[in-house]
Amino acid sequence: MTAKILIVTGDAAESLEVLYPYQRLREEGYDVHIAAPTRKKLQFVVHDFEPGFDTYTEKPGYTWPADLAFSEVDPGDYVALVIPGGRAPEYLRNDPELRKILKSFFDADKPVAQICHGPLLTAAIDSLRGRRVTAYPALELDMQAAGATFQDAEAVVDGTLVSSRAWPDHSRWMREFLTVLRAKAPVT
């Protein structure tokens, strides 16, 4: 049976931060499922940088169907977890079903890849305390408040947790995550 990876996301997730790992992990031979609060067509967004702006801009991005709702997820069926960024983590961290899923992955020490604002979810379940992470740079204080040591780097690996700042760092993020996956949960 092919090893399965779960991506947890919702509306307003950054398009590239969902679809790049989705396609890269499938290319590697993993079976990848996307879970959201409900089964529906999700509306992703595109974050980009404009001259003269102090922060990123947001535009409508791709739509993509969620394979299953958080309430349908059995974390035991999956070898790893991917947590994209965008604005979705801001509201997803309040979902009790998702918090149970996240806790299960961390309790089992399964590989987790998080990017951009995704670490807001792992902070919500107190899984960053004592760890080294990166995230979108504006979250440095949030990561420190969650008990993590923030590093401004393309990718930071702390055990089975691999974090990254944002979509420009995808190549390094996925290289590091695949190194962890091949050691902990190789494709069968």
TrEMBL record:
Task: List residues of the DJ-1/PfpI domain.
Answer: 4-178
Q: What is this protein called?
A: Peptidase
Looking up PANTHER family in the UniProt record yields: DJ-1 PROTEIN, DJ-1_THIJ_PFPI FAMILY PROTEIN
Q: Which PROSITE patterns match?
A: PEPTIDASE_C56_PFPI
InterPro entries named in the record? C56_PfpI-like, Class_I_gatase-like, DJ-1/PfpI
The organism's lineage? Bacteria, Bacillati, Actinomycetota, Actinomycetes, Kitasatosporales
Its family?
Belongs to the peptidase C56 family.
Give the matching Pfam families. DJ-1_PfpI
